[in-house]
Amino acid sequence: MTCIAVSGGTGFVGRHVVRALVARGHHVRVLARRPQHLPFPRDHVEIVPGALSDPPALKRLVAGSQAVVHLVGIIAESGRGTFTAIHVDGSRHLAEAARAAGVARFVHMSAAGARSDPAATPYHRSKAAGEAAVRTAGPPCVILRPAIIVGPESVPLTLLARLHRLLPAVPMIGDGEFSMQPIWIGDVATAFVRAGEGAVSPGTYEIGGPDVVTYADFVRAIGAAIGRPRPLVPVPLGVVRLVARCGDALPPALAPITSDQLQMLIEGSATPANAARDVLGVDPLPLEDSLRRVVDAWRGAP
Description:
10 helices
C-alpha cells in the first residue's frame, strides 16, 4: 500500500483529496493542527498533529511516503498567518523535509493567476514565490494552478446562493463581464491524486472546467441551480471598491470582499492552457452539472 502524505488535508480541497486517495487504496498520512476535528473517516488515514512551522511534525509526516501533496493555503492574512509565512516559508519547509526523506514526488497547490508581477495582488505574488520555493527546495514537483473551484464547502458559492434565497434581486459587481472557468471539486481532487500517483511529469499546469463564463453568468447559474433565479442589479465598481476598502479593515471572516479579492475577480481566472483533460486525464464536469452536485450535497447535509 502506497503512503501519500497530505498537508492541508482538513481544508476545502484537502478533504476531497484525502477521500479520493483512500478510495484509490492508498494509506494517507495527514498533517492536522486540530486532529480532533476531521472532515473525513479515519479508516486508512494516519494523523500527524502539527503545522508547517513544526519541523518534527513535518519529519514524521513525510517519513516513508512515496509522495507529498501540499494543499495548505489561505485567502486572507490574519495575525501570524501571513501569505509569506504560509505560502512561501511553509511550502519551503515541507519541500525541504520531503527531499531530506527521499520522497519521490511533490505535488503543490498554487492558483490560477500566480505571478511575481509587482502589479499582482500579494496573494498571487506569494503563490508564485511558493512555487519557486518548492521547485528549488524539494523533490521533482508537479504544481497545479486551479481556477475557481466549485464545491459544497465553497464560501463564495454559499454566500451567492444565500443572496438568491433572501433578496428579490442580487447585487452584481460592475457589469459582471469578468472571465471565469469554474472547476468541480471532485475533478480537482482527481487531478491531485493522479499527480501524486506519478501519472504526470514534473511541471506547472493550470486546470479549469470545460466552460468559460462571465461572473454574471456564474451568478445566474447559481440562482438557476437552487431554483431561485433573480435579476442582477449592477453596482458601480467605484462603490464596490469603497466597500472592499472597508473590508480590508475587518477580520477575514467578516469581510464581504477585500480590495485584493476584487482585483483578482476583475482580472479574471480563465485558463487558456487548461491541462485538466490533455495532461492529467481528467474529464471535467460542465458548470451546470457541478452546481447540481453542490445543491444535492446541500440538501443531503445534516
